[in-house]
Amino acid sequence: MQTTSKRKLIKSVAALGIGTAIFAFLAPQAFAESTKIIYQTFLDPNNSKDPRSAAQTKMIDAFQAKNPDIKVELLVDPTGATAARAIKSGSQTPDVVRVVGFAVPEFAATGNLLQLDDLVKKDGIPDEDWLLPLSSTKVAGKLYALPQDFRIPILFYRKSMLEKAGVKPPTTWDEVCALGAKFGESDTIPFAVPLGATGGLGGAQSLGEFFLSTMLPGNGGEYFTPDGKIAFSKESFIKAAQTIKDFYTTCKVTPLRSAQMGFNELHDAIRSGSAASAVFGLYRYKTVKQQGGGDDLAWAPAPGYSASDKQTVYSYNIAINKKTVNQDAAWTFVKFMVSPEAQAFAAEGGEVVSRKSAYTAPYFQSDAGTDQKKWADLVAQRGQTVTYTPILSTYHTILGEAFQRMILKDGSPADAYDELIERYGAALAKAQ
């Protein structure tokens, strides 16, 4: 009886040991398989018309093949509004977000972005392997996001329309003004200047991004102070506002219907050919070409007061929600998404990727990658970075409304400046 009991006990202990061993083996796998991170992105994987979406899918597939214990779930957020609310409210998700460069100060001000300096140092991510130094993306000396691509405004134009008018792509604002007389009375918009608020992150972002973020600070100047105060001069504002007003009035190069355009309408105008030229985002070039621009669409460096003026560059960044419970998995994902391997996929979508070493990929040796290599050179040669306000959407809203009043109600640049200073000052004080 005792022998039987001992045997049963030995078997039970052995079974328990095996069971424990099996559990010990399976538990980490089960835990690993359950590690899910939510990645907020403006790119919809189901959008077959946007090559950037297909490139994003390739990047994520490659990551999951290397990291089968981490599942990436997408939160498609075209305007970024969902991510902004989540970060500002201290939500635990999404775990990883894409943040446009000029919104990083606003996100960082919430205290809910993870500081990345120590992680970058620990993993030996080289500072010299970026088109622009990582320091250019820091907020108050701290790194909260890593750039995935760099963006510089370029001139989109329809070759056939400029050839018909007998003009070359303009290199200065004076040459833009001269297009009006060359095109004469026409249903075509010779040069579109968007003042509207559709698309983007809020307000007249296209006006700010493609024009004023470069015109107001000037070459090597300042846009905002680190605490959000306006740093550009009244003189630079008056000069920029008068230049744009002249496009609508004296030059007759920009018809009034352009005043209602935002991102979406500007995209459609270039795609359809209802606009002959416009300063737009290079990240849309490949998409516009595929959606109707075809071989008739071409590009040139954006005009300036002079042909060699600096252009303000910003980046689309990837950042980690400080409240995430999956910080290690999130960092593993972020680290991969800015790696040369992942960036080679991103390049296929038309982006000017941020890592120098990515430009050795076979794609950049093909005809398809020619434009992007030239854009990368443009970023390095003429690009400059500026400090943005943490209430950028509010600033763009005030800016767009002031410019529309100036154009549509024949106001003065000085009046527009006074309106901006008064309303923006009040908004900044309230935000602080």
Automatic annotation (TrEMBL):
UniProt signal peptide: 1-32
InterPro entries tied to this protein: Bact_solute-bd_prot1 (IPR050490), SBP (IPR006059), TAT_signal (IPR006311)
PROSITE patterns: TAT
Subcellular location: Periplasm
Major subcellular site: periplasm
Keyword vocabulary terms for this entry: Periplasm, Signal
GO cellular component: periplasmic space
Family: Belongs to the bacterial solute-binding protein 1 family.
Protein name per its UniProtKB record: Carbohydrate ABC transporter substrate-binding protein (CUT1 family)
Gene source species: Rhizobium azibense
